[in-house]
From TrEMBL:
<dbReference type="GO" id="GO:0004831">
    <property type="term" value="F:tyrosine-tRNA ligase activity"/>
</dbReference>
<keyword id="KW-0963">Cytoplasm</keyword>
<feature type="short sequence motif" description="'KMSKS' region">
    <location>
        <begin position="236"/>
        <end position="240"/>
    </location>
</feature>
<feature type="binding site">
    <location>
        <position position="180"/>
    </location>
    <ligand>
        <name>L-tyrosine</name>
    </ligand>
</feature>
<feature type="binding site">
    <location>
        <position position="39"/>
    </location>
    <ligand>
        <name>L-tyrosine</name>
    </ligand>
</feature>
<keyword id="KW-0030">Aminoacyl-tRNA synthetase</keyword>
<dbReference type="InterPro" id="IPR002305">
    <property type="entry name" value="aa-tRNA-synth_Ic"/>
</dbReference>
<feature type="short sequence motif" description="'HIGH' region">
    <location>
        <begin position="44"/>
        <end position="53"/>
    </location>
</feature>
<feature type="binding site">
    <location>
        <position position="239"/>
    </location>
    <ligand>
        <name>ATP</name>
    </ligand>
</feature>
<keyword id="KW-0648">Protein biosynthesis</keyword>
<comment type="function">
    <text>Catalyzes the attachment of tyrosine to tRNA(Tyr) in a two-step reaction: tyrosine is first activated by ATP to form Tyr-AMP and then transferred to the acceptor end of tRNA(Tyr).</text>
</comment>
<dbReference type="InterPro" id="IPR024107">
    <property type="entry name" value="Tyr-tRNA-ligase_bac_1"/>
</dbReference>
<dbReference type="InterPro" id="IPR014729">
    <property type="entry name" value="Rossmann-like_a/b/a_fold"/>
</dbReference>
<dbReference type="InterPro" id="IPR024088">
    <property type="entry name" value="Tyr-tRNA-ligase_bac-type"/>
</dbReference>
<dbReference type="Pfam" id="PF00579">
    <property type="entry name" value="tRNA-synt_1b"/>
</dbReference>
<dbReference type="InterPro" id="IPR036986">
    <property type="entry name" value="S4_RNA-bd_sf"/>
</dbReference>
<keyword id="KW-0694">RNA-binding</keyword>
Length: 409
């Protein structure tokens, strides 16, 4: 741990958010002296962000908790270009209407994590389309583009990755790093923003913005990046075999969100509690020291705290009650996914596809053959097995962690 004096950097450091700092001493002193406005940018490529963006959202929350001003920058402009960082191929281009609808949907999540308003530490949401859409091409190239060399732009990992794999990198995407640097310059002018935070893959983009502001305005800006976030088994955070873990409730049910955290690897529990919950550090230390079956209590605490932040206290309570009923052996939780069937019977294969535990009949057959399918707790290994539906709900399971209800219409 570093000996930071400001609450901002001390909290970020103690909870595991800090990977790189452009000028740690300078930022520490600034955060001691004044309210620091800081931003993170989010592109609006879908109606919801997923768990992979949650560490960035939590950094903005930590800013507000320590007396500073979070700025959420929605990429209404940059989404039209596409960030090549970490991408193997070009992103599908969206219309302005699609982007605006996505921004409106995403805002609902931020309102759970941040307090928006007009006060000195209240969060604000800004759309970079406000300035990017108004740029004139030749003046922009003359005033901003001259500060970027092709040599340096070709050295960035986001560019080298695509070129090394001989995958297309459009001129449109190649401009992204210039536009993001310009965002930082504009935000320093418009909102007195002094800090940009982001994932480690954004380090080059952040440094570009700091250098651009210094060259054009003589302004001293700062940057902080988080470590590359993967699970203990090496998987990318936010992705599972079942798909993305979306933050919006209309993209992913509360139960599935709760289960994602409940199913965390034992080795991830302490780290996730520090990053994704507001539990005190001494309580987290107690929970992560639990061993054997007792670690499950820490996982439930993680699931409850993370779900309460994103979906609300009631969602967390309902999901836990559903889990207790489901895993007690005979109960069926009320919050499980339900597949309503209007026929008296169906095969196990059709049931698995219908409830969404398999994306095709072939996948469902492999699940059954592998011993992963159960009906009311009993394994089913015959793909021709027929499930008869009566007045009572039937519990359908895929592996140990995915459960649902079959119900007769």
């Amino acid at each position: 741990m570093n000996a930071f004096k400001s609450d901002l950097l001390r909290v970020l450091d103690q909870r595991g958010y800090v990977h790189q700092l452009t000028d740690g001493a300078g930022l520490d002193a600034l955060a001691m002296a004044q309210v620091v406005p800081g931003y993170i940018g989010f592109d609006a490529t879908a109606p919801s962000l997923h768990v992979g963006s949650l560490v960035q959202i939590m950094m903005l929350r930590r800013m507000q908790q320590t007396g500073h001003k979070p700025i959420v920058v929605m990429g209404g402009g940059t989404t039209k270009v596409g960030d090549p960082s970490g991408k193997d191929e070009s992103r599908q281009l969206l219309s302005s209407d699609q982007i605006n609808a996505n921004i409106a949907s995403i805002r609902r999540v931020f309102e759970r994590f941040l307090t928006f308003g007009t006060g000195p530490t209240d969060a604000v949401m800004i759309d970079n389309a406000d300035w990017l859409d108004a740029l004139e091409y030749v003046p922009f190239l003359r005033d901003v583009g001259r500060h970027f060399t092709i040599n340096r732009m070709l050295s960035f990992d986001s560019v080298k990755l695509r070129l090394d794999r001989e995958q297309p990198l459009t001129f449109l995407e190649f401009n992204y790093m210039i536009l993001q640097a310009y965002d930082f310059l504009e935000l320093s002018r418009r909102a007195a923003c002094r800090l940009q935070l982001g994932g480690s893959d954004q380090w080059g983009n952040i440094v570009n913005g700091i250098e651009l502001a210094r060259r054009i305005d003589g302004t001293h800006l700062y940057g902080v990046t988080t470590p590359l976030l993967t699970t203990a088994d090496g998987a990318k955070m936010g992705k599972t075999a079942a798909g993305a873990v979306w933050l919006n409730g209309d993209q992913l049910p509360d139960w599935d969100y709760w289960q994602f955290w409940r199913n965390a690897d034992d080795r991830d529990v302490g780290r996730f509690l520090r990053l994704f919950t507001d539990l005190p550090l001494d309580e987290i230390a107690r929970l992560e020291a639990l061993e054997g079956s007792e670690i499950n209590a820490a996982k439930v605490a993680l699931a409850n705290a993370a779900t309460a932040l994103c979906r609300g206290e009631e969602a967390a309570r309902t999901a836990q009650a559903t889990a207790e009923a489901t895993f007690s052996g005979s109960g069926i939780g009320e919050d499980l996914p339900v597949h309503v069937v209007d026929v008296p019977s169906l095969t196990i294969v059709d049931a698995l596809v219908g409830i969404g535990f398999a994306t095709s009949r072939g996948e469902a057959k492999r699940l059954v053959a592998g011993g992963g399918a159960r009906v009311d707790g009993s394994p089913v290994t015959d793909e021709a097995h027929v499930i008869a539906l009566g007045t009572d709900d039937i519990r359908l399971s895929s592996g140990k962690k995915r459960h649902g209800i079959l119900r007769r219409a």
